[in-house]
Amino acid sequence: MSDKIYPVPADWAARAYVDKARYEAMYQASIEDPEGFWGEHGRRIHWFAPYTKVKNTSFAPGAVSIRWYEDGITNVAYNCIDRHLPERADQVAIIWEGDDPSEQKHITYQELHDEVARFANVLRLRGVEKGDRVTIYMPMIPEAAYAMLACARLGAIHSVVFGGFSPDSLAGRITDCGSKVIITADEGLRGGRKIPLKINVDEAIAIAGGVEHVVVVRRTGSPVNMVPGRDVWWHDAAALVTTECPCEEMGAEDPLFILYTSGSTGKPKGVLHTTGGYLVYVSMTFQYIFDYHGGEIFWCTADVGWVTGHSYIVYGPLANGATTLMFEGIPTYPTKSRMWEVVDKHKVNIFYTAPTALRALMQAGDEPVKSTSRASLRLLGSVGEPINPEAWEWYHRVVGDDRCPIVDTWWQTETGGALISPLPGATDLKPGSATLPFFGVQPELLDADGKVIEGAGAGNLVLKDSWPGQMRTVYGDHARFMETYFSAYPNRYFTGDGCRRDEDGYYWITGRVDDVLNVSGHRLGTAEVESALVAHEYVSEAAVVGYPHDIKGQGIYAYVTLMVGVEASDQLRKDLVTWVRHEIGPIATPDLIQFAPGLPKTRSGKIMRRILRKIAEDEHGSLGDTSTLADPGVVDDLVTNRLNKR
Ligand code: PRX
Q: Which co-factors does it depend on (predicted)?
């Protein structure tokens, strides 16, 4: 924790949409009269038919139901594209920067319209209709955004799957939402390395079945297998259709997308977001948190496979008629200055990234940053995991030349958009704190018994009431939705995060309190990694926990018990790492695997993760009560053989 305060710079207070007094007034209004507040701000998007009802939400046990603007009619693609054409047809909507610094594209709003409408026609000709699910498994190329917006135009529900996921993970997501159409590319390109997307899609389809059409973007030109009748090249299909494609009329509560995310148990959940409330919320948070003014260049470094990419590369910026930068590559290729070179090349004004990238770049020293100008930057953002004060200070001093405020935005796939974040013209900053709630957001801290913590203190972070960007359900499983988020504390949305509130009412997110890991800003369930490990023929049992990692935030520590007769070896350790990468994807690569003859269990057979976490964190001096263990002796072995490579 840091007790330093960075006051709002005077020029920011003057130019920003919201200063301190206005934040206070708007926040109060949003809490006292949510109907009035959101009724007014809902009109920031275009409605084909206006809503008469604003908020109809309940967190009541067994009857959770979330509806915003429910009788309004609109279309997300219309709001992100068509609506801007009279004024901005020739303005750049998307700047695309390729993996190789020699490749870039500038796509105007008119071009965006034409590409999206064309592709919507391609999908329509393949039978895609309102409500159908379409899976998008793409690299960071403009076609990924076109595909998302084409679905929105038709009223189809997209499910974007991060290109780093394995065929198995992709197959699970295709099956869960029953999509018959997949959009992909021959290969992805990151840091000069090729990613076999089409091969993965073919494998996934073989597992999942039921896929009727695959549309393939030619990105690298490497030869790929095209199944006649099923697979078609994007450019071939797009050449046959027109740029005329009307926007489907969508009810505010019609689904916009599904995005799979990990929880503490079971398979990843299909988080469902709908049309009206989501767009109002992401467009409003984008404008106010990034204090976006017309003509500025905004760059969010996330992948469109994550919610950050959905909300703050595509929907939030485009709903505001902004210019959004989409980057195909990685921060360190071809040099450690790449991010800042891109900033200089495209005159980026607002830069939004994850702490893990900053920590990695920080290790390379100041020189790769200082050798660039970055004079265009005026605001920096952070998202995805807690940012340690050292990284925050470095970001502020070295990247921002002590000139740019930092907005540390706390939110989740489930929340649609940022919920706790500074507003740069209104909020004094404290390094490491996400600061204060956005309009309409009512955080509360509860202790283990559900008692409300008033004033300064720490507890589990819950939200007292709904906001328009909130997820509506788990796709196909409303019971799981209620169980996961609303059963821990009645009438509250439980975030899964721990949090502290200081004397000034500032929030400091301390990280997940459940069995969800946050590895380099990527969310993973311990249960997923465990089930991948036990699927290996030599593994009898596995328990996975997180441990503090200097760059990744959290590393993956796996305790593995082998089948009787199987010999532990470094080779087997490597094999298991490869196995997990193959089962889930490289983001799930275990950092440390400790072979253990036994795992600490209660007499009823439940693994005591608390103990495993303490050992992994090197806090075995404070293991707590181990007397309830069936065999307290296993703990000694675990402590003795603990791995200690950071
Ligand atoms: O633990 C919190 C952490 O990331 C989790 C949500 O992950 P995901 O759904 O993948 O969405 C990430 C991008 C919005 C949260 O439960 N988290 C996210 N942002 C922050 C954060 N932790 C601390 N500070 C943040 N700014």
A: Mg(2+)
